[in-house]
């Protein structure tokens, strides 16, 4: 299993912080809509996690892990404005995988790399239950949005765009 250490790091963090959580085993799936159906909840209760490349100027590039509700899109213009950046786009797959320490479809709403800045939409931390793949396609975690915010201490900004069509 690729990135098994990321899964173990997540579970260790949840256990050592005494955070209440629940694991859900399901068929392997990385699409937010499909995995939400497998887990039996609306997509709006899922954490959609996107690694972005933020070019501040010609020499400065930052990487941001944007977390929005699963039925929404990341508003790239809002992220660009937030950072005063010249350009914001999706990170290439290899950089995203390296920084997130997870394969696409299993990216956690946590950053375990100092080079990956966590920015979370306020709707995510307000959720009574937040669902996300646990750095693997066949297992998910459920925690409260409040516990998630307490554990990650993210930058909370309005970065969710309209619902995906």
From TrEMBL:
Residues 26-151 form the YbaK/aminoacyl-tRNA synthetase-associated domain. Pfam families: tRNA_edit. This is YbaK/EbsC family protein.
